[in-house]
């Protein structure tokens, strides 16, 4: 069923990992130096960049007990002030990548290059170990999903990671996880048909629910090493993460 790997490129470590990040409102300029935070399962919806990285592209708003965002989930609060993007617009960006293929080593795509040059790579290295170069030929289905979210301008609610299990946990921990196939949802697969997040093998975007027990998806790092549109059985779906869209 393809060559996907569900483990991070470096270590099989779920319970004791340490993530680098912050959970503060950012309004532009550069971020303050992050601190090392034990991953207790509470999630970090901002996934803030490393020190001295410009963050003018997004300005999340913190929820408060008296403010307008008080009734919103963490991801919805983060989405305040972002450019309006619909699920259809994000899927159009994903579709434009169909046909992109990896090299003979299993890497070399623009999705690898983007992730390796992003501040997120240092956060995932701090969590999983390894080095930047090791991502050059790493499994890239989640890099593709993360890249599309970045291009759509809604990275804070699509999330960004190279490890599908952690990405799914992030959606779940922030209250944006469920079992309904919706256009633009991030879909996580277990080829064995399990329902545990720790069994996740692969990730992509839902294009539509076909109404016959299958979904049409757009995915990177398919078994053919490409970005492709696929039809997948829902029996292989562990769950769906829901970014925040306009409309």
From TrEMBL:
Record keyword Transcription regulation present: no
Location of the Peptidase C51 domain: 136-221
InterPro entries the record matches: CHAP_dom (IPR007921)
Keywords: Signal
Signal peptide positions (record): 1-38
Name of the featured protein: Peptidase C51 domain-containing protein
């Amino acid at each position: 069923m393809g060559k996907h790997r569900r483990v991070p490129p470096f270590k099989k470590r779920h319970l004791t990992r340490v993530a680098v990040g912050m959970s503060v409102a950012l309004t532009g300029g550069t971020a303050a130096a992050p601190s090392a935070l034990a991953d207790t399962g509470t999630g970090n919806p901002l996934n803030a960049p490393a020190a001295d990285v410009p963050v003018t592209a997004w300005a999340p708003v913190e929820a408060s007990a008296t403010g307008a965002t008080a009734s919103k989930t963490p991801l919805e609060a983060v989405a305040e002030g972002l450019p309006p993007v619909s699920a259809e617009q994000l899927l159009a960006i994903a579709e434009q990548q169909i046909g992109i293929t990896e090299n003979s080593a299993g890497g070399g795509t623009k999705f690898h290059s983007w992730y390796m040059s992003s501040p997120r790579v240092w956060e995932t290295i701090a969590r999983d170990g390894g080095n930047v170069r090791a991502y050059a030929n790493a499994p890239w289905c989640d890099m593709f999903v993360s890249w599309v979210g970045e291009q759509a301008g809604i990275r804070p609610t699509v999330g960004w990671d190279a490890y599908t299990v952690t990405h799914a946990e992030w959606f779940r921990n922030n209250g944006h996880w469920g079992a309904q196939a919706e256009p633009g949802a991030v879909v996580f697969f277990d080829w064995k048909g399990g329902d545990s997040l720790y069994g996740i093998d692969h990730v992509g975007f839902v294009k539509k629910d076909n109404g016959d027990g299958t979904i049409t998806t757009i995915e990177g790092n398919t078994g053919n090493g490409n970005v492709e549109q696929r039809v997948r059985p829902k029996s292989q779906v562990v769950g769906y993460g829901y970014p925040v869209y306009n409309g």
